[in-house]
Design brief:
Largest sheet: 4 strands, parallel
Strand order of the largest sheet: 2-1-5-8
Radius of gyration: 15 Å
Distance between the termini: 11 Å
Number of strands: 8
Shape: globular
Helix content: 25-40%
Length: about 160
């Protein structure tokens, strides 16, 4: 059975930096849950970060590829470097996806881990830029399509492919 890696916060788990969840209310996701297709994962928790924790963003002008290559950092507003936690969590997410033969990932948009189209710009101003989080980037680089919580229909189409 083909599986979906899904952000734990989207499944109602209170694992976000602020201790909240961002649950997805979608019949397709509920069907996947009932079918046992969901592999629930939070890369930031897997990387050793606590809940709650300070927000973190990729340095301004850098991207996920830079972070994974060691050319950029992920910082809190106070300048604390949490890069190693994010990279470790991304690697854990990839290992989990590969171990469960995941066909597609459904991850939380805008996160420095999970964002697949946009991430915050690194200034902690609320502005977003086009880009990927480190987990999304690593999954995509290994052939696992990554979609966000507003793309469940597209994820279902990918899951239906042989």
């Amino acid at each position: 059975m083909r599986k979906v890696l899904v952000s734990a916060c989207l499944m109602g788990r209170r694992v976000r930096f602020d201790g909240r969840a961002k649950p997805v209310d979608d019949a397709t996701v509920e069907r996947w849950r009932a079918e046992g297709r969901l592999v629930v994962h939070c890369p930031e928790i897997a990387g050793g970060l606590p809940v709650p924790r300070p927000p973190a963003e990729i340095e301004p002008g850098a991207d996920a590829a830079d972070v994974l290559a060691g050319r950029a950092r992920i910082l809190t507003p106070e300048g604390v470097d949490v890069t190693d936690h994010f990279v470790s969590g991304a690697r854990a997410a990839l290992a989990t996806a590969q171990a469960h033969d995941v066909a597609v990932a459904l991850l939380k948009q805008s996160s420095p881990s999970c964002g697949s189209h946009q991430v915050f710009d690194g200034t902690f101003s609320g502005r977003k830029v086009t880009g990927e989080g480190v987990t999304a980037h690593l999954l995509i680089a290994h052939g696992i399509p990554v979609l966000d919580e507003d793309q469940v229909a597209e994820a279902a189409e990918l899951l239906a492919e042989p």
